[in-house]
Design brief:
The protein has 306 residues and is α/β, with parallel strands linked by helices. The protein folds into two domains: 193 residues, 3-Layer(aba) Sandwich (Rossmann fold), CATH 3.40.50.150; 39 residues, no CATH class. The chain contains ten helices and 13 strands. Strands 7-6-5-8-9-13-12 form a seven-stranded mixed β-sheet, sandwiched between helices. Strands 1-2-3-4 form a four-stranded antiparallel β-sheet, covered by helices on one side. It has a two-stranded parallel sheet with strand order 10-11. The longest helix has 17 residues. It is globular. It binds zinc ion. Zinc ion binds next to loops.
Length: 306
């Protein structure tokens, strides 16, 4: 058993009642509601005891993707994607960076790894324990400091007012209930803290290409049909990222506003997008140019402040 650092124990909370947790061996206990949670391989598992089928289906899918037999993590396109993530965060994370940085839906925590190298205090969360184990191995290799927590993004196991900056790159769209995750981000942000999320936006790309891979555009009526086809009829066979929806700019802005965030800002997320549809470089380049046009935008960023 390895004791969690005191500074980490202080920010963790029971996901059920949000009280402090106490570590005894490889278990975290909540003195208030008597729930206990295991620490697996140094990673607190604060997932709810019971999860919906939809949640466990997605979780299993991502655990499979991150299993040791699964595809290797550092596919070449991911490097460009991570560099763009860092550029984006650096644009908006303007404070002295002494507080905690949360990477929500961190996977193997590639973004956090860069910030940890700079000496920032990083926390990575994901519902895939396999992803977090890979992240941990990579951090240990470089002797970097970290806290990884396996949990549900809609019910964060952290105290109030903890994070200086939250980065949710491609995570909140994987749950039907987007409002709860945004509300939880607000609760756990420090006053003045910032949040940036990257989400798929409803556009011609999403309505064609995205939908082939299981994206569900949040258009009333149409959404339920797409969900039925992908998750009932096809049993998620083509939904390579599990459950995933796309929003209009108005919808996601409303969710942020209703979640109590201030200074909301949205815009095209200019990044490297992998084009799998064509082999020809010529066609790939045309696609890349088209993606910058509003009609074809694949993703947008949404920022908010507490
Ligand atoms: Zn509790």
């Amino acid at each position: 058993m390895v004791p969690l650092k005191e500074s980490y124990l202080q920010i963790l909370a029971c996901p059920m009642c949000k009280s402090h947790l106490i570590q005894k061996g490889d278990t975290l206990y909540c003195a208030d509601c008597n729930n206990s949670y295991p620490i697996e391989d140094g990673i607190p598992n604060l997932l709810p005891k019971k999860v919906s089928t939809e949640f466990s289906d997605s979780m299993n899918l991502w655990n499979k993707r991150y299993s040791s037999e699964g595809p290797e993590l550092d596919e070449p396109y991911q490097n460009s994607y991570i560099i763009d993530n860092l550029k984006h965060i650096n644009r908006f994370w303007a404070s002295d960076r002494k507080g905690f940085f949360l990477e929500a839906g961190c996977g193997t925590a590639n973004v956090s790894r860069f910030f940890s190298r700079e000496g920032r205090r990083v926390v990575g969360i994901d519902f895939s324990m396999n992803a977090l184990k890979k992240a941990k191995a990579a951090f240990n290799n470089e002797r970097l400091d970290f806290l990884f927590v396996c949990c549900d993004i809609r019910n964060l196991p952290f105290r109030n007012d903890v994070f200086e900056f939250i980065y949710a790159g491609g995570s909140i769209e994987h749950f039907e209930d987007t409002k709860s995750s945004v509300a939880e981000f607000r609760r756990t942000l420090k006053p003045g803290g910032k949040l940036t999320a990257l989400v798929p936006v409803i556009s011609l790309s999403m309505l064609t290409y995205g939908m082939l891979y299981g994206n569900l555009p949040a258009v009333p009526g149409f959404f339920n049909i797409a969900k039925f086809v992908h998750h009932r009829l096809l049993k998620g066979k083509f939904a390579i990222y599990g459950y995933e929806k796309s929003f209009t700019v108005g919808q996601i802005t409303n969710i942020f506003e209703n979640g109590g965030l201030n200074n909301i800002e949205t815009g095209y997320y200019d990044s490297y997008y992998e084009i799998k549809m064509f082999k020809s470089e010529f066609l790939k380049n045309i696609c890349k140019k088209l993606l910058k046009h509003r009609l074809f935008w694949p993703m947008i960023y949404v920022n908010g402040e507490k």
